[in-house]
Amino acid sequence: MHSLKKILSLSIAIVLSTALFFLAFSLLLSPSLPEEGSPPRLYSLHTGDDITITYSGAFASAKESILIIVFSFTDDSLAACLRARAAEGIPVTVVTDKRNAAAAAKILGPDIITISRVMPGLMHQKIVVIDEAMVFIGSANMTTESLRMHDNIVVGVNSPSLADTIISRTVAFTMPPVRIPYTLRHHIIGSQDVEYFSLPEDREEAFTTIIDLINSATTTIKIAMFTWTHPVLAEAVIAAKDRGVDVEIIVDYSSSRGAGKKIVATLRDADLDVLTNQGPSLLHHKFLLVDNTTLVNGSLNWTKAAFKDNDECFLVINNLSTQQQLFMQKLWKNTTLEAR
C-alpha cells in the first residue's frame, strides 16, 4: 500500500510538472499582441522577443484580411502560415519590391496576391496590417535572418485609423509614385499621440520632422542606424552635441566602413563617440530617441535616397510611457554591450 501511494504521488507529480511545463511553453509561444485602446507595444530580439512568433500569432488571429508591405519576404515558416490562412479563405496580399517579388511569389504560392512594386527607388517599407485594425511597423524584413538574427524594432498598435491610412495608400503601389494627401497623420493610440509618415509622398514633412526633433532635444539623443549618409542630419546632431545634449550613436559595422564611412568620420571628428556593432548579425535599426520621451522608428535609413526616392515609413511615438522608456533603456544597454 505504501509503495502504491508513493507511485501515485510520483505519477501525480510528474503529470503536474509536465502540465506546468507545457503551460509555460505555450505561454512562451503565445505572443502578446497589441490590443485596441492600449499604447503601442515594442518588440525586439535584444529585449527577448521572438518577432517570428509575434507575426505568426498575428496571422493566426486574422478573421478578415492580411496585408503585408515589405521589401523582402523569404521566411519559410511565415510563408507556410500565410498559405494556410489563404487556404482557409482569409484574403492575403503581399506588396514587395520588384527585385524580390519573384522570390516572394514563389514561396507564398498562387493563393496569395503578390504585388511587385515598380518605382525608381526601393519599396523599402515594412508593414503588417491585420483585419484593417492591428498594425506592425518597424525595420525588420520578412526574412529568417532579419527576424531571428539582426537587430530590429517592430512597433505594434491596434488602430483602425492608422490601418485605414496605410490601406488607402496602397493604390499608389500599382501606379507610378503619386502624392496622396493625408486625411489623418496624428493617431491617438492608448492616449499617446502617434504620427505616421509615408515616403515618398511625405518626404519634405518627414525630413523636417526629424530635423525639428533633433533640434528640440534638451538632454539626450540616442541614434541606432543601419546606414547613415545624409550630411544635413549629421550637422543637426553635431549642433545638438555642441549645445550640451548628450549624444550617443551606434551604426552597423559594415556600413560604417562602407556607405556610411564619411559620415562616421565627420561625427568622430566632431568628438562624438560612434560605436559599431560586433559579430555576424546586422545592426538593422533605424531609430532616433530624443530625451527618452520621443521615439522615431520605421524603415527609413538616414540616406538621401531614402528621403528622395524610396517607399519608406516611420512612426513618431510621443510621450513614451514608463514601460516604453524601460524597454528602450534595456534595448540600448543590450545593444551597446555588443558594440565598441
Keywords for this entry:
alpha+beta; seven-stranded mixed sheet; 340 residues; 15 strands; 39% helix; 23% strand; globular; eight-stranded mixed sheet
Structure characterization notes:
This protein has an eight-stranded mixed beta sheet, sandwiched between helices. α2 packs parallel to α3. The protein is globular and about 60 Å long. Helices cover 39% and strands 23% of the residues. It is α+β, with helices and mostly antiparallel strands and 340 residues long. It is built from twelve helices and 15 strands. β10, α8 and β11 form a beta-alpha-beta unit. About 7% of the residues have low confidence.
> How large a portion of the residues is in β-strands, by DSSP E?
15-25%
| Biggest sheet: strand arrangement | 8-9-15-14-13-10-11-12
Count of distinct strands: 15
Low-confidence stretches: 4-28
What profile does the largest beta sheet have? 8 strands, mixed
Mean pLDDT score, rounded?
A: 89
Give the overall shape: globular
- Rg on CA atoms, Å: 22 Å
Please state the structural category.
alpha+beta
Question: How many alpha or pi helices?
Answer: 12
Q: Please bin the fraction of helical residues.
A: 25-40%
Helix/strand order: HEHEHEHEEEHEHEEHEHEHHEEEHEH
Instruction: State the distance separating the first and last CA atoms.
Output: 66 Å
Give a concise summary.
By secondary structure, this protein is of the alpha+beta class. The strands form 2 sheets. It has an 8-stranded mixed beta sheet with strand order 8-9-15-14-13-10-11-12, with helices on both faces.
Topology of this structure?
Elements: H1 2-29, E1 41-43, H2 51-61, E2 66-70, H3 76-87, E3 92-97, H4 101-108, E4 113-117, E5 126-130, E6 134-138, H5 144-148, E7 154-158, H6 160-168, E8 186-189, E9 192-199, H7 203-216, E10 220-225, H8 231-242, E11 246-251, H9 253-256, H10 261-269, E12 274-276, E13 286-290, E14 294-298, H11 304-308, E15 312-317, H12 322-337
Parallel strand pairs: 2-3, 3-4, 10-11, 11-12
Antiparallel strand pairs: 1-7, 2-5, 5-6, 6-7, 8-9, 9-15, 10-13, 13-14, 14-15
